[in-house]
Amino acid sequence: MDVTMIQHPVGQGGLFSGQLQVGDSVLRWVYDCGSNQQDRLNEEILAVAAQGTIDLLFLSHLDSDHVSGVDRLLAATTVAEVVLPYLSATEFALIVAQNAATGALSGTFLEFVTDPAKWLIARGVSTVSFIHSVEENQQLAEWQLLESDGEGLSREDTSRLNVRWTQPVSKQRSVKHGTVQHFPTGAAVGVAANGQGLDWLLVPYAHKPSERRMQRFVNELKAVFGRALTRQAIARHARNEQGRAVLRECYDRLWLDHNKVSMSLYAGPQASPRIISQQQSYSHWRVGAPALSRAEVGWLMTGDAHLAAGRRLFALLNYYHHLRDRVSVLVLPHHGSELSFHPALVPGFSNLSTCIVAAGRNQYGHPHSHVYEQVRTYLGVQGWHHVSECPSSGFGVRAVL
């Protein structure tokens, strides 16, 4: 089983690609596809698309710097399934207000977030899967992954590995040219080859803001827009300057800490793997990467998860408690922002070797020096890797298991 995982150098945004290969069969997945540095993003999208069909595209959240390249990716290659967190009408309003507040709101982006499933299927995606999130104070039951039994999606194309969700669909509907489905918290993607389950998982986790704060945001919106808080009504207001100004005001009053819905993703084995060989360092692959001996190969990507609050961090750690020892690479939340970082985050993973911060030119001071010092204290200087818009700054791992 050969695996390659890369955090691409796209600047202020995010683009990760992974590939799992068994014999001649492959599985390819991508996590986020956006950046404020469009030229760098375009180059990396073409490199990813040139590798062929993408089985799964995971979108952590709908901020423009994480999804601005999705249209170009869909135009350049086939994407079979897109996975993203489900947003209520209020959470949708929050996304629109946040992008209005940062000046990132465009007509195309507004069309996308108003109805992501329709937008994606119209561009060739076969299946759109929504992951439902949990609230900050909601207690999760003991989380157990189902064993892979090889009953994956049957495909005529034998060049693709089979995938299946480990939880049943909670809601599903067929639409013209595609399928829209919803999964409860706890669903993960298992992989099978030749009818045999592989020890490889893709495990998303979406955590939502507190009910109290969301209700305050609803009250702010209702005071201005009335009670019709539908997606269409919010989108209508977002299309004129006065409506955008009010949305910005509502956002600025309550959400300056970016405490919003964001979906993390674990990619890796369930059991500690036997690593036959491993290479690290994206920038050195062109000249031959050194062989490394590391105990684990799992990656955890956190999008813009607001993990500065202890209850949110410990909810995430609890959710992944079966897999935390498998995590070798952690992509830090929100481009290394201090507002999304908790000192207990890095020590929460006992076999962690590298923290990646994906941050390009920006006006926010990402990554924060305090975050760097915290990582350096725990992992040393070698445990910090800054992926920027510099083409040689990307970080990747190749391993044979």
Automatic annotation (TrEMBL):
* The protein's name: Metallo-beta-lactamase superfamily protein
Q: Which organism is it from?
A: Ectopseudomonas composti
Q: Which residues form a coiled coil?
A: none
UniProt xrefs under InterPro entries: Competence_DNA_uptake (IPR052159), Metallo-B-lactamas (IPR001279), RibonucZ/Hydroxyglut_hydro (IPR036866)
Metallo-beta-lactamase domain location is 30-84
Matching PANTHER family, A to Z? DNA INTERNALIZATION/COMPETENCE PROTEIN COMEC/REC2 (PTHR30619), RECOMBINATION PROTEIN 2 (PTHR30619:SF1)
